[in-house]
C-alpha cells in the first residue's frame, strides 16, 4: 500500500506539471483512520498547459494508476475540483 500511495502522489504531481503548469498551489494530503488510507492531490491550475514535444512521452498514466489502486481493493477518483471553479483532484482510498 505504501508504494501505491507514493505512486498516486508521483503520478498526480507529474500530471500537474504536464497539464496545469500554471497552478499556483498544489496540496498533498494523506489521512489514515482505522479503516484505511486516503491520498488526495489537488491543484488550482486551469489546465491546458502546452509543453514542448520532448516533454511528452507515452505511459499508462491514470489508467495504470487505477489498476494499481483497485488491485489493492481501493478506489481512485479523478476530476475537476468540486466547487473550486478550477483545478483538478486525484483521490485514492486504500482499505487497511
Rg calc: 14 Å
Rounded mean pLDDT score: 89
Total strand count, please?
4
Low-confidence stretches: none
Helix- and strand-based class? Answer: alpha+beta
Outline the structure in words.
It is built from two helices and four strands, in the order H-E-E-H-E-E. Helix content is 30%, strand content 31%. Strands 1-2-4-3 form a four-stranded antiparallel β-sheet, covered by helices on one side. A hairpin with a 2-residue loop joins strand 1 and strand 2. The mean pLDDT is 89. With 96 residues, it is α+β, with helices and mostly antiparallel strands.
Observed structural traits:
96 residues; alpha+beta; 4-stranded antiparallel sheet; 2 helices
Amino acid at each position: 500500500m505504501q508504494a501505491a500511495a507514493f505512486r498516486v502522489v508521483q503520478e498526480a504531481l507529474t500530471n500537474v506539471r504536464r497539464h496545469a503548469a500554471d497552478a499556483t498551489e498544489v496540496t498533498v494530503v494523506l489521512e489514515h483512520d482505522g479503516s484505511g488510507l486516503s491520498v488526495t492531490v489537488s491543484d488550482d491550475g486551469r489546465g491546458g498547459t502546452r509543453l514542448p514535444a520532448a516533454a511528452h512521452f507515452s505511459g499508462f498514466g491514470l489508467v495504470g494508476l487505477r489498476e494499481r489502486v483497485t488491485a489493492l481493493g481501493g478506489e481512485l477518483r479523478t476530476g475537476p475540483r468540486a466547487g473550486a471553479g478550477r483545478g483538478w483532484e486525484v483521490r485514492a482510498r486504500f482499505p487497511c
